Amino acid sequence: MKETIEKLVVGLEAKGPGHFKGNDWFQLKEEEEWVLDIDRERWPRMVIALNVFEAVVGTIPAYGADLTDADVQAAQDHFKFGDSDCLANFKRFATEWCGLTKRESDATYAKNEYWEKRCGLAIYPDEPQPVYPPPAREGPEEDEAEALAPCGCLYPGKCFALGKHRTSECFTPQTVEAAWRQAEVDAFNAWWEAEGCRLK
């Protein structure tokens, strides 16, 4: 798994610094770089750490982080995160397997947390609750918007970052819904397995 992570880092670094300029989750604004004290040369590694962690904890499917189900299972078996603090889990994962420092781990987590709030992905109890599926949001940059338009993706920036736009693996409403349905089936099976039953 560590070798896989290093390959993903090298692949993302090869995209060049221009790939990381913008307002999307995998991109770094100058204000974020300054406030969070992020080294832009280290940012691709920080992006991979966050994306792989999200796959490990089930926030996104394995293919969303260019991993196999076996990769994810190996990480889950090793870390056994359970229901403990998410930031603590990320710091442990990022420092042990992704080569980040604890300061970099904090910065990565904080950057993503406030990006989610700016985008409306983090919903507070006193705010209107979202309707599923969420509406498509704008692409990362104007020069990329035209390339992303045929994708039909709910999350074009993430799709573009992972090289999955215009493919069968992009985050369209259909693939996202299918992933969530499978996750629900898997969760039900895990809970019900003790009774010797399986949901097909």
Helix-strand layout with pairing:
Blueprint lengths: L1 H12 L16 H6 L7 H14 L12 H11 L6 H12 L4 H18 L22 H7 L7 H6 L11 H20 L8
Biggest β-sheet: count, sense, barrel? none
Oligomer: single chain
Q: Summarize the helix and strand pattern as letters.
A: HHHHHHHHH
Total helices: the number is 9
Report the radius of gyration as a whole number of Å: 17 Å
The computed structural class is mainly alpha
Average pLDDT over all residues: 75
Question: Your description of this structure?
Answer:
It is built from nine helices and no strands. It is an all-alpha fold. The chain has helices at residues 2-13, 30-35, 43-56, 69-79, 86-97, 102-119, 142-148, 156-161, 173-192.
Descriptive key words:
200 residues, 9 helices
Q: What's the short story on this structure?
A:
This protein is mainly α and 200 residues long. Helices cover 53% and strands 0% of the residues.
